[in-house]
Amino acid sequence: MIDKDYLLTKIKENNFLIIGRAGIDIYPDPPGTKTENVEKFISHLGGSSANIAVQLSKLGGNCKLLTRISNDSLGKLTINLLKKYKVDSSLVQHQDGEARLSLAVIESRLINHQSIIYRNNAADLFLNNDDIIKSKIENFSCIIFTGTCLSCEPSRSAIFLALDIAKKNNIPVIFDIDYRPYTWKSSKEASKIFLKASALSNIIVGNDDEFGILAMNYNKGLELAKSLTKQNDILIYKMGEKGSLTITKNKEIFKSIYKVKALKPTGAGDAFMGGFIGSILNNYSIEQSIEIGSAAAAIVVSKVGCAPAMPDMYTIQNFMKNNIT
Does the structure show a pLDDT above 80 at 231? Predict the structure, then answer.
């Protein structure tokens, strides 16, 4: 745990390293089309860390993404799209051999929605200690990473090296749990590793299911979340349609969600994270930043795509004026 004012000051220094996957999302077109009936697809930048970087960049964040991508045309497309969204890709490494970029086929529909994720031999999970050392963690003001990075080696050890360097240099760490069961050997393993990472993080963001995994009991996720605030500065416990609970050592803040007509169920968490941190960057209070993050999440689920749907502050403020929680 570090001083809260110091934490907010470091975020406002605006020099972010975001670690985790970038990929390509493919959407059946037009929206509402089932994948089995599709005749045409459209593609967009995807991957949780890339999406967070895009949202944070839209709010003025200076973001470098650290990941590995496949050394092929899809990898090159990912780099081009990161540049389009003004995310610094200079630390992105290419993985040779049979490694493949993270790929997702996502339907823009809610009823019987399907998202098909291709993570076989995923390039981003080849992130290694050398990548961390070369990235010069000590030069950044804030580190953001997602839990998917922890699912296997060598990426897991690389993340813990990054967290160790950050701690030694008093650099705040923000952890988006981002639990994806298909990337883990077991929920028990995920719980053990997530708890270890939580102990080295200053801000933790996750939903009720994810904290249930940490507790190894879905009925005790909130209890565990509250206990973690003894070692963490800010913890955000998201409850879907029931809103969110932000917990600090001395305070709990409940916020409702913005109700919108959703087009898809994906991208909300990434938008929330980028919106929350980006709002602190723009001198909003923690309470206001939660509301702005929630608004960004609501906007993204109402549009096709994740990265292209991430809103700027003007769009968010207009949305908040015309919608209530």
Answer: no
